[in-house]
Amino acid sequence: MNKKSSDGSTRVTVLVALAANLVIAAAKAVGGLVTGSPALLSEAAHSVADSLNEVFLLASLRRSRRPPDDRHPFGYGKERYFWALLAAVGIFVMGGCFSFFQGFEALRSTESESPSGYAVGLTVLAIALLAEGASLVRALVQLRGSPDGLRDPALRTVLAEDSTAVLGVLLAIAGMVLHLLTGNILWEAAASFAIGLLLVFIAYRLGAEARGQLIGEAVDPELRGKLRTLLEAQPEIDNVATLLTMKLGLDSTLVAARIDLTPGLDSETVELVCVRIKNSVSGIWPTADQVFLDITEAPTGAGAGACGVPERPGTHRENIQDART
Asked: What is the pLDDT at residue 137?
């Protein structure tokens, strides 16, 4: 599956989740206002937050695919993580905080709910459970067919939202049923607090992941080890002093290595080495589209610096390759 079709599938998954959340949010809000159920109103806030987040994710899919330009030479791949961070903030503020508010309001309430109110609330939640479940199934199907898997922040956020939504609906149902059986509203208050805690936890996890990517996160150690092994295996490289990597997006990675070359290489040979290393890295790691090599010691007897650029007197470090594809 290529990048465009993968984004198209993710977009469909987000649109399905958005449609489900809009319908469910309206139903929960009406049901919550009619019945006065704090758990149902908490779930309505949850669905509103999820709906807004899907809009953020749709924006991330469109904006992250813009080509590089003068102001952003490494492209816009990190747009996905920025919008995912906003989605996490939305879950925390609109979902988690409102759920806590509803829980405290329930503890202060002295009104009793009618049997018809329970029937309306439970019916709404049953419909919401079916809709959220269908959206979750769609997201899981997308996950199985996606080459990026959970690395895609848009898909990861939808999965987290749908999973949390299903669990939140089950908590709300439990709270309402226990309230009906015992006549104690404490159960619905507890359900609202539980939903709030769940949303805050999910928001924290999603926000922490997005924050790490925005700051600049290295690739996983196993892949980094393979790259170091590949560089060290090149006959012209004596030593790999430093190897730095950073994810620039789902399909873009920066690789910067500080290397010692073997003595006696002329400038033309250095250029050929650059091209061969770039092709080798791209061959085993297609997303490595930004490759930079930095020579720590100039080749002995070479009349030119990196890639045929004349070396300035006293300069021993030159950037010898910008392998942009």
From this structure: 87
For β-strands 252-261 and 237-249, DSSP reports them as: antiparallel
* Placement of tokens 């006065």 in the chain: 36
Per-residue HEC secondary structure of 197-210 comes to: HHHHHHHHHHHHHH
Q: Tell me the C-alpha distance between 10 and 138, whole Å.
A: 10
Amino acid type, 146? S
Residue 96 contacts residue 202 (beta carbons within 8 Å): no
Predicted pLDDT of residue 319? 41
DSSP per-residue string spanning 124-179: HHHHHHHHHHHHHHHHHHHHHH-SSGGG-HHHHHHHHHHHHHHHHHHHHHHHHHHH
Give per-residue pLDDT as tens, 300-312. Answer: 444 334 433 334 3
pTM of the predicted model as reported, rounded to 2 decimal places = 0.70
Residue ranges of the chain with per-residue pLDDT less than 50: 1, 298-325
Which residue in the block uniquely carries the two structure tokens 């003068």?
70
Looking up tokens 């848009």, which residue turns up? Answer: 154
Amino acid identity, position 316: H
- What pLDDT was estimated at residue 315? 37
8 Å CB contact between 66 and 76: yes
Q: What pLDDT was estimated at residue 324?
A: 40
Handedness of CA 66, 67, 68, 69 (dihedral sign): negative
DSSP per position, 74-87: T-STTHHHHHHHHH
pLDDT of residue 18: 84
Non-local (6+) Cβ contacts of 45 within 8 A are 94, 95, 98, 99, 102
In the chain, the amino acid numbered 236 is: E
Residue owning tokens 């813009």:
66
CB 43 within 8 A of CB 28: yes
The owner of tokens 């690789």 is: 255
Per the CB < 8 A criterion, the answer to whether 69 and 93 are in contact is no
